């Protein structure tokens, strides 16, 4: 299968930038609607989730830029970049820089290998930041929107449309991140259409029951969610810490990364350490399934018999089969549809899923160590169970560049 070219990445970067701008406008529109309908508390909650998600995403973006070699940073003075991040415009600056690099690559008459790898690197960072923003902001807002719809027992057309598009966007962010990881692979085995569809569906089928369970629990005890979330988040944070992540450049920022990943894990699986993931995945999904089941049983047990939400019982009954179907599709994906199977056949499920990504492939070795940073090294060691020809030489060179920067 032919790898997707820079034009494809440029289109995705432009679409992502436009979607991010529309998302901000949509949040403002929803908040204004809540104020006009006499629900300022909901408006404050929507804007608060927007602010919290933006602060976390901008902090990660700034810490990454600060640790990047000069060749990978946007052409702006560090004080200006810091000011843009304080103004919550840092990610937008990244998107515009990626669009500029992608436009230059597309205009080049001859293929510029380093520029294409630079573009791939920028797109990967943006994809990961969008994934963080999705779970820090969009997914909690989606849960809140579902809570409002169930509480009022009425869905306006815009709310219904927003609910469907939000579920699709959350799942798409996971697929986009998974696809962006593959841009570093030398063999360039891209996700096929069937692989992308199955990957999209199993994430959708696993996330929907989780959000439904939290929303149902909030119907009975809205403030209890403020207790449940920190407790589960703390458990996930400790679990991530015990896995010994080494993604950021220093221990302090590493705690921020672990905190953000713990929020992601509250809703969806996210691999953070190297080695076999089968057992970790079983532990995680068993915990989430048990937790979601308890939340749903609380709603079923304590709701009033004359509750007007009785129509939700068939939906709740379908949640467990939906989650199990998601697990079956995930096993199917890693067993038969994963792109690494094109490179090395005959590998068992646990080997293919060893890092949640690929096996039997090699990373693209850059000709300059400036195009390798600490996150790239972490991806080599954690996300891919693969070899990298001459990789150690480049990693040592990159370490020298970073220490001098």
UniProtKB/TrEMBL annotation:
Name the UniProt record assigns to this protein: XK-related protein
Reactions the enzyme catalyzes: a 1,2-diacyl-sn-glycero-3-phospho-L-serine(in) = a 1,2-diacyl-sn-glycero-3-phospho-L-serine(out)
UniProt topology in membrane: Multi-pass membrane protein
PANTHER family: XK-RELATED PROTEIN (PTHR16024), XK-RELATED PROTEIN 8 (PTHR16024:SF8)
Cellular compartment(s): Cell membrane; Membrane
Residue spans crossing the bilayer: 158-175, 195-213, 220-240, 255-272, 284-302, 314-333
Protein family per UniProt: Belongs to the XK family.
Segments forming a coiled coil: none
Organism encoding this protein: Melopsittacus undulatus
UniProt keyword terms in alphabetical order: Apoptosis, Cell membrane, Membrane, Transmembrane, Transmembrane helix
Gene Ontology CC entries for this record: plasma membrane
Pfam families linked: XK-related
Cross-referenced InterPro entries: XK-rel, XK-related_scramblase
BP GO annotations: apoptotic process involved in development; engulfment of apoptotic cell; phosphatidylserine exposure on apoptotic cell surface
